[in-house]
């Protein structure tokens, strides 16, 4: 009798297991979707209130109360991290196709620069908040822009290194060049957001000329002539991988 009872009890638990898992899965998907909605609301609140926005501003933009918001974010620092990760997503969604486009060198450079400047033009307050750390409750040690610069510079180093080796050139210069280019573009982007003394197309064109002039000059020093308007024989591609250990902006969880 006891053995039969144990089997019946065990069977009952097994039957409830998949249902329980399904409920947990639905709840997790719901939380992910709601958190993503609140991040988008925070982006809208940023446009209106700037980097000094409060949780009440985000709640108002989302059409909920602050307690509801705090069910999905531990605190303002958690929201900052989520905004930073969303900013990284927005940038990489535009930048990766541009960097890996099967275009001639100059159009490819121009397309990558235009991707960056388009993102910061569309979300200026988000970029200001992240680049200048203008957030009262920013988590200690969190610098999304510095992390993005590292990821992009590392990817660019691999890309330039591949091309330099393809032309039998010393690829040792690829890393300092990459960090120099990324730093120049970021500093120019911050200046442009503040001054707006020229159009986006103009600043992109000026930077395109500067970067190509440097690449062309170095190549010619090594006896290599590259047609700026002709696709190269091999289209080297890179992947922009997020910084290890970064939390998922949709769930707030670490991988």
Automatic annotation (TrEMBL):
Keyword Transmembrane helix: no
Name of the protein described by the UniProt record: DNA-binding transcriptional regulator, AcrR family
PANTHER family: HTH-TYPE TRANSCRIPTIONAL REGULATOR RUTR, TRANSCRIPTIONAL REGULATORY PROTEIN (PROBABLY ASNC-FAMILY)-RELATED
Lineage top rank: taxon: Bacteria
Signal sequence annotation: none
Keyword rRNA-binding tagged: no
Keyword terms, alphabetized: DNA-binding
Species of origin: Prauserella marina
Lineage, opening ranks: Bacteria, Bacillati, Actinomycetota, Actinomycetes, Pseudonocardiales
Molecular function GO terms recorded: DNA-binding transcription factor activity; transcription cis-regulatory region binding
One Pfam family per UniProt: TetR_C_32
InterPro entries: Homeodomain-like_sf, HTH-type_TetR-like_transc_reg, HTH_TetR, Tet_transcr_reg_TetR-rel_C_sf, TetR_C_32
Ranges where the record places region Disordered: 1-26
């Amino acid at each position: 009798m006891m053995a039969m009872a144990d089997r019946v009890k065990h069977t009952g638990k097994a039957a409830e297991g998949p249902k329980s898992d399904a409920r947990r899965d639905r709840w997790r998907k719901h939380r992910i979707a709601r958190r993503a909605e609140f991040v988008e609301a925070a982006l809208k609140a940023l446009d209106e209130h700037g980097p000094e926005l409060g949780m009440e501003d985000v709640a108002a933009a989302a059409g909920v109360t602050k307690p509801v918001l705090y069910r999905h974010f531990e605190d303002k620092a958690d929201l900052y991290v989520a905004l930073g990760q969303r900013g990284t997503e927005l940038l990489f969604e535009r930048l990766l196709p541009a960097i890996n486009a099967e275009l001639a060198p100059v159009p490819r450079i121009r397309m990558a620069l235009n991707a960056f400047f388009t993102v910061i033009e569309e979300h200026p307050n988000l970029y200001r908040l992240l680049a200048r750390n203008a957030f009262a409750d920013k988590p200690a040690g969190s610098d999304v822009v510095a992390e993005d610069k590292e990821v992009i510079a590392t990817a660019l180093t691999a890309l330039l290194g591949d091309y330099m080796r393809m032309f039998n050139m010393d690829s040792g210069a690829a890393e300092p060049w990459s960090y120099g280019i990324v730093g120049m573009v970021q500093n120019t982007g911050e200046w442009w957001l503040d001054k707006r003394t020229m159009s986006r197309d103009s600043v992109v064109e000026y930077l395109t000329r500067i970067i190509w002039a440097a690449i062309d000059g170095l190549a010619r020093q090594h006896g290599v002539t590259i047609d700026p308007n002709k696709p190269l024989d091999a289209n080297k591609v890179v992947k922009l991988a997020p910084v290890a250990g970064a939390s998922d902006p949709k769930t707030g969880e670490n991988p």
